[in-house]
Amino acid sequence: MSGMSLATLLVLADGRLPSGGHAHSGGLEAQVSAGRVRDLDAVADFLRGKLATSGLVSAAFAAAACAHPSEWAALDQGLDSRTPSPALRKASRAQGRALLRAARAMWTMPLTGRDLHQPVALGVVAAAAGLGPAAAAVAAAHGTTSGAASAAVRLLGLDPYAVHGLLARLAPECDRIAADAAARADDPVDDLPAAGAPLLDIGAELHATWEVRLFAS
Amino acid sequence: MKAFSRVVAERDNLGGTRLTVLHSESPLLLRRTGPTTVHLVGGGAGPLRGDDLRLDIAVGPGATLEIRSVAAQLALPGRDHLPPSRFEITATVAAGATLRWHPEPMIAAAGCDHHTITRVDVAEGGTLLWRDDLVCGRHHEDSGNVRLDTTIRYAGTTLYRHDLAVGPAAPGWSGPAILGGGRAIGTIVFAPDTMPATSGPGDYALMPLAGPGMLATAIADDIRPVQAALDPLCEPTRALAHT
């Protein structure tokens, strides 16, 4: 990651970036409601599984889109084929659209579709910001855990210090997954990671049918 | 153990299906059991570490083939120094053809290390039902490592791309993002069939894919509720309903 602006990466990965991420629990709300996540240990288990599956996939697609921004359409299709849940596709595109909107005020953006999947949008934005695939991957992996972690504080009333302690302990794993993902940024789309998390799919579908919910997904 | 088995189904002059190739190597033994049905009959326990199994399936224009199995596939440890066992399935389905893959579950015995790689290519106008059930460990046993790596293409575009990893090598696999303590999972991919999304009861959802097809997934403590949720979707009358 030599030569890139660390401050720019921090701006992009900041949870306060107005890109709508705070409205999503990353699938946690459905699992809290199902009674599977009640305490910090279960949140840790949830985040470890999410990081190894959708975290790895997001990081790989963000890295690939950053390395090859003009390939956004093929990468977007690749995420479609890795996201069987219509509710998750919708949530991912809503977050991609919000990120692109925010990014247009920050950097000079190339022309792309308006509602890309979030990891593809993140990669294209990272490239426009002058960042490289490794930075895009780390921002994606970090985003997979940080959004769900802050949702855990709100959904379960957990101690925010303890939840951030958890994020700190997951950071080396985030780095490892991001490095793995970035190393594959030039692979053909079908060969990019496709690790699935079946309960995230099922939970998102159940969640989408609720009349009252705290988070959009 | 190395094995390469192959089946080719073609439409005959009378509108039925004839198997122009039915080549079996142990332990992947194929037996014709009905006009359009072939069963995999177990030829020994396994797969075990070091096994390298390949199955090629080709269904020609207008032909119909259903592949079942007589017993669960039990992935077992084998000797430590050998590479993970590998089962590579390649299938092509031509226009107007139907392939139904509906074997008994795979069971990941404690200590196993297995990798199934599935690549299915369905031409436009072809029909597919692809079912995979997985049980994580035998009764009261920890799960071994199994990875199911699946790519299904329809009309030249990737419709479904999914890897599922269970067992001690897969971080968080039994946690609340992946199987949530469930020990059995089943999936069916249908192409180009599609129906509106439904979910529940239990950990079950039927999901229209972004492309022409849908996925049904069920997770439960053991295989019976998974079968109860998915078996009705495998009734031949339902799978043909879209035509």
UniProtKB/TrEMBL annotation, chain B:
It comes from the Bacteria. Its main location: cytoplasm. InterPro entries: UreD. Keywords: Chaperone, Cytoplasm, Nickel insertion. The keyword Cytoplasm applies. Coiled coil: none annotated. Pfam families: UreD. It is found in: Cytoplasm. Required for maturation of urease via the functional incorporation of the urease nickel metallocenter. Belongs to the UreD family. UreD, UreF and UreG form a complex that acts as a GTP-hydrolysis-dependent molecular chaperone, activating the urease apoprotein by helping to assemble the nickel containing metallocenter of UreC. The UreE protein probably delivers the nickel. This is Urease accessory protein UreD. The gene is ureD.
